[in-house]
């Protein structure tokens, strides 16, 4: 089919196929993910086999040389057509995203509205050759060479966005790409793959759906040059161990337990609504959501009261509830994990300052709904402080001494993001720079754009995505030494 920016998919609900070498294929075995708003099974998707993996890798290897040899501008123009096609399919993709994630309309829009623009912001990025040295005797150039077949393995909290930033960077610099979405949210990724068949040459962008054995098949495959992984710390460690066997390149974007430190001079009317939103948005299922709020003791009570008032306004509802702000947790595994944390808070006798009543529209379903909950000043060693909940439960914690709160914020194996909130920007920046995290903000949190590198300290990750550093992660780094023949000089002279 001809590539056209107005290409519209006509079916978002009946057929979901793997995309291998621009062919839509299915498998003998199929499975269904679950609609988190209702607990009911959704549509059938393929369960890829080792054979499917071999075919996709072989198709990628065959496509790689021609794609690599295009100019970056030519590859960029394919990506821009893809961005236009995504925008043209927003309505259908949005409804499907709601079904597979349970996100109410604002959450769907948050992911979908920016999707095309994420690609458009990555496309102008360039990694130019660098002239390291030029003398009469020699020239030394540093250049960046694409790796080959790249694989993106993604989590379920942003089923399209997490894959799209990976594939745009990988393809732009000349790799081909296989996307493995989460088994909990395979639908929109497969539809994006279907859309891609109308735009990209064969084998350039492929999508495989499967069960929990598909990731290991890809990390083990000797024909895969790189794994870019977004998911949990535990799985990230398995991915890195598996990739060691073939020394694949690995980027790991893993969990976070981001602290927000609120200073005594912060203007509550301004910061409380922002911090509450950034803690509960997407029902807390964001790696960079605020997960611990450290509030200076002199404003703690007022902050807590104002915070609860904001959280009370967050209506919980399913994907078809136009008034809802927060949807369900995305899957039964995550529901059980977060429920376990709620139980632990009760078992430890911690003070629950607020726990919402769930609306009957949610309790009447088998959906994975949990009540937005605020925990009041739990001990530092409690699980709600030390673990990443990835759900709508947030601890507020008192602090009094600057050095001490920085130590407590940094007392974590995770180091994804962190923020400091104060009327004194210079002081806040000085404090923020002491946070052990890949991204730190002053009077903000979860601001990310594709032109700024993003990654974690400690167990939150390895390597970065986005920005030109992210593009370099999709390349081998090559140094080219040219000894000038006109000059009679010996090496090492
Ligand atoms: P997960 O680790 O369970 O799964 C992530 C992906 O890995 C899925 O596609 C899964 O099928 C696959 N997988 C599972 N076992 C595998 C294996 N052995 N080898 C290869 N692949 C395997 O994570 P999740 O529950 O989907 O996601 C939640 C986590 O993701 C949270 O910790 C969250 O903080 C993190 N996350 C991080 C970022 C970031 O950019 N740092 C973004 C979103 C989510």
How would you characterize this protein structure?
- With 493 residues, the protein is α/β, with parallel strands linked by helices.
- The chain has two domains: 256 residues, Aldehyde Dehydrogenase, Chain A, domain 1; 185 residues, Aldehyde Dehydrogenase, Chain A, domain 2, CATH 3.40.309.10.
- Helix content is 36%, strand content 22%.
- It is built from 17 helices and 22 strands.
- The strands form six sheets. It has a seven-stranded mixed β-sheet, with helices on both faces. It has a six-stranded mixed β-sheet with strand order 9-8-7-10-11-21, with helices on both faces. Strands 5-6-22 form a three-stranded antiparallel β-sheet, with no helix packed on it.
- Helix 3 packs across helix 4, helix 5 runs parallel beside helix 6 and helix 10 packs across helix 11.
- The longest helix is centred in the N-terminal third of the chain and has 20 residues.
- It is globular, with a radius of gyration of 24 Å.
- The N terminus is likely disordered.
- Bound molecules: nicotinamide-adenine-dinucleotide (NAD).
- The site of nicotinamide-adenine-dinucleotide has 28 residues, from helix 8 and helix 9.
